[in-house]
Amino acid sequence: MISFNEDAKIFTLQSKGFMYQMKVLKEGHLAHLRAGHPVPDPDLSHLLRPNELPDCSETGRDKASFMDNVMLEFPCGGIGDYREPCIEVMDNAGHLACDLRYVSYSISEGKPELKGLPATFAAAEEAQTLSIKLLDNLLGLEVTLFYTVFEDLGAIARSAKATSLKDKLFIKRFLSLCLDLSSSSWDMITLSGAWARERYANRVPLHAGKQRIESSRGESSHQFNPFIALAEKGASEDSGKAFGFSFVYSGNFLAQAEISSMGMPRVVMGINPQNFTWVLEAGESFQSPEAILSYSEEGIGGMSRTLHDLYRKHLIRSPYVSKKRPVLINNWEATYFNFDTDKLLGICREAAKAGIELFVLDDGWFGKRNDDNTSLGDWYANEAKLPGGLSRLANEVNALGMKFGLWFEPEMISPESELYKEHPDWCIHIPGRSRTLARNQLVLDYSRKEVRDHIYSMVKAVLSSANIEYVKWDMNRNLSEVGNAIYAPDRQQEISHRYVLGVYDLMERLVSDFPNLLLENCSGGGARFDPGMLYYSPQIWTSDNVDPIERLKIQSGTSLAYPPSAMGAHVGDVPCHSNGRITPISTRGNVAMFGTFGFELDLTKISKEDLEQVPALIAQYHKCNDLARDGDLYRIGNIFTDNTWDAWMFVSKDKSEALLEYVQVLASSNTPSRRIQLKGLKEGFWYKNDETGMVLSAETLMHDGLDMWIKGDFSSKVIRFEKAKV
Ligand code: DGJ
Question: What lines the ligand 1 site, CB under 6 Å?
């Protein structure tokens, strides 16, 4: 899987359908040779265009023209490569240049952990890891590049570690991944949005200059997701080359594609260098988060399936990853802050009758919180609302045959809280500056261990006080005035990253102390839907928007990088609280079945007709979830280019079962048939359609297709196919 050709000084990394090669140049710079389709040639040094580019060792005075045009693995700033660098280090003299040269390499089986950081994992027989040591002699800076190659997937995990060998250094930028390519005919796909419309997919051609997405909000954000793809011009959902770049991190990030003056694309990904400087004392190291590079020749769909498999198999640690999650009901949109035990139990009684398995008590159960002005940080039950506290409520919910789950927002503090009275300095702030409120709250300084310890002891006490089997961990604002009164001035720019490390520390404690807890991450909807969070929780709340029609875009965009099994998806009320749309409960259910499936409405208030349909929807979830959760996703419609309908399929790994889900957004009369060609089936197999009973070959289902026509806007259907004997 990983080999080194000593003569040509070429590293070859070979995973399923993906080959990645690099070469140590004469002067020790580590060049990138190629990434793409596997080829047998032992030496492809000519791809570095030696006849056009003078080797810098031979024409030292023209090094700049060389460095600026050669493909590099970990480009350094300040030595003649004017494209985006991966590293900038300032020494005590104030200089910024860095010149890393090859020293040595080693190869190990499996994958080492990244201490304190979420990262993919693999057993010895599943992956190999290459470590390449580079050195800047003048700075006394050693950088180790890590490449893990997964045996069964077209994906490589990359990260880097910097160690100062002699002096104090200031790391001003330290990215995780660079990919230089030689031709510019690529489109860039990004996921962008806002609250209630997260992760809409955009595809634009790369052009000269830098096209960048980023977050400087302290979390991965609603606005941009730490994911980009490069799709070869003309690549479709099903064919053509596509690279996926995904950052296993939950804080400020940068993801950028740049086309140089010579038409060469450079993609970089890592911690956003804006407001970042990390001090390295002699002997200290800094480990970057991990970035994933995936490659597919089966178009954008193939790229997504590789990332889904990678994340389900090698990132999500939760025991729930391939288990059916309990069907839940959450009281947020049912009651907001306006509830008491009786009200909640009324909902639970209806829920239990319908077959719902878990009740989640959302915001408003603690301190004096009856609206969003107070009490974050005061993590004890409000007995005025919940007499007998959480344990009585949990017991009563359990007595109905349901599990009990609870909402927290552990990273926040309300200025109107007991915690703030005691510790006004515990929030992130710049002394002397006013503290900007968002949703009436401030952010706790998770870069400080004593703050984390205190919050965790409260959370742990609550979780130990009652039978709580699920936690929703929310985070409802961005960071501002990032600073604190205790760090030295030259360490203030470490706080954003230390904050994220602090969040990871707390999540790690939570999943270690409560290994069977079902944890769902959330951030004002889906502002922290990133691979970092998936390391701790098997599911993330996708969006506060539960309108099934807008969810088509949100879920489809999210599925470019993330498995549907990780997407929190609920049946909401009508009119939908975020956009006022009225849709049938069957379509709300069918769209929620794409993800983890639950309800978020007051079952005591919905229409009798809708209530009667709930058990059937739950039965359908139980029937279909194994496929949706563990199968391969094939997107058929593209709601971003034609928003009148959408369709997708889940196909089991052995191809014996498949599920087609179709949503008709806009009905029309007497129009030509909409014939949907199925995908992902196995030629040679025959499949029985559970709606019509008809048995058809995979060939006809995929080439001729099925006619779809339903009456009514926002209508939908789910058809299951099973391999049949003929
Ligand atoms: C934002 C979440 O996305 C909602 O589901 C809900 O939990 C609220 N916060 C509660 O404040």
Answer: 332, 362-363, 407, 474, 476, 522, 524-525, 541, 544
The C-alpha atoms of residue 187 and residue 554 are separated, in whole angstroms, by: 21
Summarised one tens digit per residue, pLDDT across range 62-119 is 888 889 999 999 999 999 999 999 999 999 999 999 999 999 999 999 999 999 999 9
Domain boundaries, the chain: 2-314, 328-413+447-478+513-625, 645-724
| Exposure b/e, 469-498, CB count within 10 A at least 16 = b | bbbbbbbbbbbbbbbbeebeeeeebbbbbb
Per-residue b or e along 441-455, where b marks 16 or more CB atoms closer than 10 Å to that residue's CB:
bbbbbbbbeebbebb
Indicate which residues carry an active-site annotation. 474, 544
CA 91 centroid distance within chain: 35
- Residue 522 CA: nearest ligand 1 atom is 3
Ligand 1 pocket test: pick from 219, 329, 541 the residue with the most ligand atoms within 8 Å of its Cβ.
541
Tens-place pLDDT, residues 189-238: 999 999 999 999 999 999 999 999 999 999 999 999 999 999 999 999 99
Is residue 13 within 8 Å of residue 147, measured between CB atoms? yes
Q: Which CATH superfamily is domain 645-724 in?
A: Golgi alpha-mannosidase II (2.60.40.1180)
Instruction: List pLDDT tens digits, range 309-368.
Output: 999 999 999 999 999 999 999 999 999 999 999 999 999 999 999 999 999 999 999 999
Q: Does domain 328-413+447-478+513-625 have CATH number 3.20.20.70?
A: yes
For residue 111, give the nearest of 338, 294, 292 by alpha carbon. Answer: 292
Rounded to whole angstroms, the Cα distance separating 152 from 249 reads: 24
Q: Which residue has the least CA distance to atom 11 on ligand 1? A: 363
State the fold for domain 2-314. Answer: Beta-galactosidase; Chain A, domain 5 (2.70.98)
